[in-house]
């Protein structure tokens, strides 16, 4: 049955003029909905959030931003550049491991055109989410093909920030990454698999443990930091290597070079049931590191380290040409 609108209500929104005529038995019903024009590329529905009611929203239940994030990731996977632009605010800010810092949606769409030329058949896999307030952190593994169509994987953390609880356009976005094709030894793989299978914990406990660890780590208190680590603690850093065991983990963090001026600080912390995402920087305007922390039984088991590679002085456009195609002299027999 087609939906129509009462002409007498023209120019007014939904309210008393939203009426129905007829009865349910024998005769049809006519509804007069409000003339709402959907946004371009907007989702046909929004999944209800599981967070409690937001006081700033007038008692309304907060809507989850994860569907909007998934829609943007899908647009990237399928090279939909117009949709990528539409899903960012016109004045959106995007900071990535490849650089540079972009400050408008058009430039962000153009950046993805170049990015997807270098990452052919790009696919975000193994997605994990942490949502807190108007911020969503996603840990993913990018599966793609390089300049020579050889497949590679690269682990990334993306942070999406929205202006309000009902906003669907991304306002700020940060993309951290590791180097490509990281391989793990048996102890690190066992610790990671153990953490992936854990399903307990609570956000409040996770925040308390992670905050205590980073406060002690940045203050140089190794004993207090080690108290928050499990016996199988492992760090998987995309730049500085892999270490297993509390003492080795703390030793690796101590070996990371720091600039002559400034002090590393925590700029953002999102906590889930048994996972947390921590951003660290010397200057908050220039993101530097992001860690994806996994807990088991109230102790930190795995820390995955990601970075703004360009901020560290690492070439993010490395194509591994010399590694994969070594030139060898052909000698006579």
Automatic annotation (TrEMBL):
Gene3D superfamilies found in the cross-reference section: 3.10.450.50
Domain spans labelled SnoaL-like: 69-163
InterPro entries according to UniProt: NTF2-like_dom_sf (IPR032710), SnoaL-like (IPR037401)
The protein, known as: Nuclear transport factor 2 family protein
Chain spans, region Disordered: 1-59
SUPFAM superfamilies xref list: NTF2-like
Organism: Tepidiforma bonchosmolovskayae
């Amino acid at each position: 049955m087609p939906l129509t609108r009462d002409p007498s209500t023209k120019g007014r929104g939904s309210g008393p003029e939203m009426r129905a005529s007829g009865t349910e038995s024998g005769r049809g019903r006519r509804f007069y909905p409000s003339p709402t024009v959907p946004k371009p590329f907007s989702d046909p529905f929004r999944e209800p959030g599981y967070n409690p009611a937001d006081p700033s929203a007038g008692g309304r239940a907060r809507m989850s931003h994860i569907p909007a994030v998934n829609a943007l990731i899908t647009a990237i996977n399928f090279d939909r550049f117009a949709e990528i632009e539409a899903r960012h605010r016109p004045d959106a800010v995007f900071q990535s491991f490849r650089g540079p810092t972009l400050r408008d949606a058009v430039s962000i769409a153009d950046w993805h055109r170049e990015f997807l030329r270098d990452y052919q058949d790009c696919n975000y896999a193994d997605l994990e989410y942490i949502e807190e307030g108007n911020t969503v952190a996603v840990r993913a593994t990018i599966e793609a093909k390089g300049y020579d169509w050889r497949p590679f994987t690269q682990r990334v953390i993306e942070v999406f920030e929205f202006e309000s609880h009902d906003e669907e356009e991304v306002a700020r976005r940060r993309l951290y990454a590791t180097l490509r094709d990281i391989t793990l030894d048996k102890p690190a793989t066992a610790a990671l698999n153990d953490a992936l299978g854990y399903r307990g914990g609570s956000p409040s406990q996770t925040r308390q443990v992670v905050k205590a660890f980073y406060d002690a780590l940045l203050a140089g208190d190794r004993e207090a930091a080690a108290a928050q680590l499990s016996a199988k603690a492992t760090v998987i850093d995309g730049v500085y290597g892999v270490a297993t065991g509390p003492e080795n983990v703390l030793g690796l963090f101590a070996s990371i070079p720091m600039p002559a001026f400034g002090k590393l600080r925590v700029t953002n912390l999102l906590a889930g049931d048994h996972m947390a995402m921590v951003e660290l920087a010397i200057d908050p305007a220039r993101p530097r590191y992001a860690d994806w922390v996994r807990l088991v039984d109230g102790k930190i088991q795995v820390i995955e380290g990601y970075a703004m590679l360009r901020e560290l002085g690492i070439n993010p456009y490395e194509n591994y040409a010399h590694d994969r195609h070594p030139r060898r002299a052909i000698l006579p027999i």
